[in-house]
């Protein structure tokens, strides 16, 4: 979706262009509507023309182009979406119904298709069987899964901030101390800071107590989220991670880092109700982070307090878990045979086939599509 030149290339080749959004409908619409308020420098912005509940975001948490009023890139994206054959999103109308409806009826795009959550898509039977065999072969060698297998249900906090966001060492130190002080077991994936040296004696202490596992490389996130030992996900609110945690039915503690992640945090905590901010005091003060440049370090005691309050017996995470389990069922239904995303996928294929047939009849253009080629190109 971030490649604004692909529409013109598709036009030159005489083929339809469908843009694929890496953001959800909620965040995409919020960015679009906020960008319409040119010159608004209010300390707290309310997203205009949005469904209930009203969404208010401190100006300090908005993407940089909205704070500086440099709209050329978002305007080019909006133009691309308007001119293309259609817009596909990794979401479902069951998950984001009022926001999907706005895309369908407001004329922002010619056609809208809601195809997700992709994380919930069922594998073909043969591929799934092969995957199970491979998992069985590697199970005894998989450090992560073996470690999780040894933990009680819902007892582990999974901590990961994706592959693009990087924290400075001081923040990693505070996070480490907070995880330790929480008394909760944790699985922490540290990406992009493989050379970080944890506080003296910390790593040895949590390993001896068998309370923590630190992974300094890629980790199988969907498998981790789906493990019964995991009780909460401390996440940066990247959209793929949110969809994966919804598919797994897992509540979240939010720690957004940059771009639309602060907007997505509002959706997760205020609209869906499947989690809460890890550092609400910092949010109230506007002290939040950007990629590679934290304005304020989240104190370790705040991390510990959030985890114990959210994951403790009878804690606030229980209500969030009930809500996210309901969303997980809706996500599975959306991608199942006859579900909303399943229908939209076939509608997309049918629309492309019809466009190809019309082009051949009208212009005798050599462009042709088969149902198989369309499906393969979308999946890949």
- How many structural domains can be distinguished in the coordinates? 2
Strand content: 5-15%
Structural class: alpha/beta
SSE string, helices as H and strands as E: HEHEEHHEHEHHEHEHEHEHEHEHEEHHHH
Please, how many helices? 17
Question: CATH topology of the largest domain, what is it called?
Answer: Rossmann fold
What is the CATH first-level class name of the largest domain? Answer: Alpha Beta
Overall pLDDT: 86
Order of strands in the sheet with most strands: 8-7-6-9-10-11
Morphology: globular
From the N-terminal CA to the C-terminal CA, the straight-line distance is 15 Å
Radius of gyration: 22 Å
Strand tally is: 13
- Per CATH, the superfamily of the largest domain is Glycogen Phosphorylase B
Judging by the overall fold, what is the CATH architecture of the largest domain?
Answer: 3-Layer(aba) Sandwich
Question: Portion of residues in helices?
Answer: 40-55%
Major sheet details? 6 strands, parallel
Low-confidence stretches: 370-380
GO molecular function: UDP-glycosyltransferase activity
InterPro entries: UDP_glucos_trans (IPR002213), UDP_glycos_trans_CS (IPR035595)
Organism: Triticum aestivum
Family: Belongs to the UDP-glycosyltransferase family.
């Amino acid at each position: 979706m971030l490649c604004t030149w692909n529409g013109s290339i598709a036009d030159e080749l005489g083929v339809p262009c469908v843009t694929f959004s890496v953001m959800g409908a909620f965040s995409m619409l919020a960015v679009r509507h906020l960008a319409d308020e040119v010159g608004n420098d209010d300390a707290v912005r309310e997203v205009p023309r949005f469904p209930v509940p009203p969404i208010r975001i401190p100006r300090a948490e908005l993407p940089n182009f909205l704070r500086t009023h440099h709209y050329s890139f978002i305007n080019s994206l909006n133009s691309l979406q308007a001119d293309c054959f259609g817009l596909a999103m990794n979401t479902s109308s069951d998950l984001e119904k009022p926001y999907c409806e706005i895309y369908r009826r407001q004329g922002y795009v010619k056609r809208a298709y809601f195809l997700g959550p992709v994380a919930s898509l069922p594998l073909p039977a043969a591929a799934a069987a092969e995957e199970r065999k491979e998992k069985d072969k590697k199970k005894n060698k998989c450090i992560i899964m073996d470690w999780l297998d040894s933990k009680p249900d819902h007892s582990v906090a999974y901590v990961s901030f994706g592959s693009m966001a990087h924290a400075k060492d001081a923040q990693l130190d505070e996070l480490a101390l907070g995880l330790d002080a929480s008394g909760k077991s944790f699985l922490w994936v540290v990406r992009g800071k493989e050379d970080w040296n944890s506080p003296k004696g910390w790593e040895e202490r949590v390993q001896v107590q068998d309370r923590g596992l630190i992974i300094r490389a890629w980790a199988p996130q969907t498998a981790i989220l789906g493990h019964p030992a995991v009780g909460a996900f401390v996440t940066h609110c990247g959209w793929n991670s949110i969809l994966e945690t919804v598919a797994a039915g897992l509540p979240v503690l939010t720690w957004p880092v940059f771009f639309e992640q602060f907007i997505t945090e509002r959706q997760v905590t205020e609209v869906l109700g499947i989690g809460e901010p890890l550092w609400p005091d910092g949010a109230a003060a506007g002290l939040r982070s950007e990629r590679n440049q934290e304005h304020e370090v989240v104190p370790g005691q705040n991390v510990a307090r959030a985890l114990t309050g959210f994951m403790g017996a009878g804690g606030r995470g229980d209500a969030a878990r009930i809500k996210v389990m309901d969303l997980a069922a809706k996500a599975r239904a959306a991608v199942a045979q006859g579900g909303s995303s399943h229908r939209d996928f076939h509608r997309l294929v049918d629309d492309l086939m019809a466009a190809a047939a019309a082009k051949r009849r009208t212009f005798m253009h050599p462009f042709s599509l088969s149902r198989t080629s369309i499906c393969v190109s979308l999946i890949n």
